Every structure is written in C-alpha cells, then in structure tokens.
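Title: Prediction job returns without error message
Component: structure pipeline
Severity: low
Priority: P3
Assignee: unassigned

Description:
Job completed but the reporter wants confirmation the result is attached to the right record. Sequence as submitted:
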Amino acid sequence: FKIWFYFSFTGCVTCLDYDEHYILTFPNGYGRQVNALFGIFIFNALSILTVPWIELGGECSINCSKTGYNASIVFHTKPFYGGKKHRITAEIFSPNDKKPFCSVEGEWNGVMYAKYTTGENAVFIDTKKMPTIKKKVRKLEDQDDFESRCLWKDVTYNLKIRDIDAATAAKH
C-alpha cells in the first residue's frame, strides 16, 4: 500500500552568526509497504508480513536572499522494480549562475558525495556520523493548550503503554 503526505509549506532556518536566513521547501512523504510472494507483488492483507518504511520524494529548494546562493534538491522515490530507497541529488548554485558549482548525490539518511566543477570529489556529509542533538522543548505545563506536545500528550502516553483504543480516543 501507499500513503502520501503532500507538504506545501516553507520553513526558515536562520544562521545567527552570519545574519543569514535560508528559506526552504520540503519533500513529500510516503508510507510504503510491499510484499513479494513467489515473484508476484501483492498489495492486500498479506502486507502485515513486511515492514513498512517512510520514503521522501519530490523537489525542494533552499534559498538565501542575503548571499544569493541557492540549491535545488530532488528526493528520489524507489522505483517499483529494483533501485534503492532514500536517494537524493542536489545542485548548488552561486549567485546569478545558471550552472551549479557543486552536485551532490547519495542517500539522505546516509552518505552524500559532492562533485565540484573544479574536479574535486569529497564526502559532502555522512549523516550516520553526525551527533544526535537533544531537542530543547518547554515543559508541558508551560505550553499553551494547542502546542504540539501538550495537544498530543494523551495520545503519546497511550501509544507508549500500547493502549491503541485509548490513544485513538484521545485523538478526538
């Protein structure tokens, strides 16, 4: 089966040290699950036998109005036959340039490699080696009623104790 989440909003990341604001768009999200039985792909009740995965797909962009640098990013979905999951390609452009000075490819949840127009090739980023940074979130009692963690606290609690009926009821 396939579940599709279409994201049509933008975000802003601010680099305080340089007073730069990066406007970015987001890829679509897909919930996927496929079964193979005797070489035939089946999309039915047997789907509970395999592990579903989340897949990102679609085009995104990152733009900095202060510097003029921008990037075009494509999250590639896995083809029906063959291919790899989690593939990403990107092109990074200098201000006012039509050709990229850097191309990036790899896996968005793994290693990405950069190819520069100078001929240099290098690891762009290895997400597996990046440290995990703990989120800073206000305490529940300090949040407004409709802030995400406060709003979903009962659903989260019931999912943690594996009470699906209570979690479902808490959503209403």
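Comment from assignee: result matches the submitted record. The CA atoms of residues 139 and 150 lie 9 Å apart.
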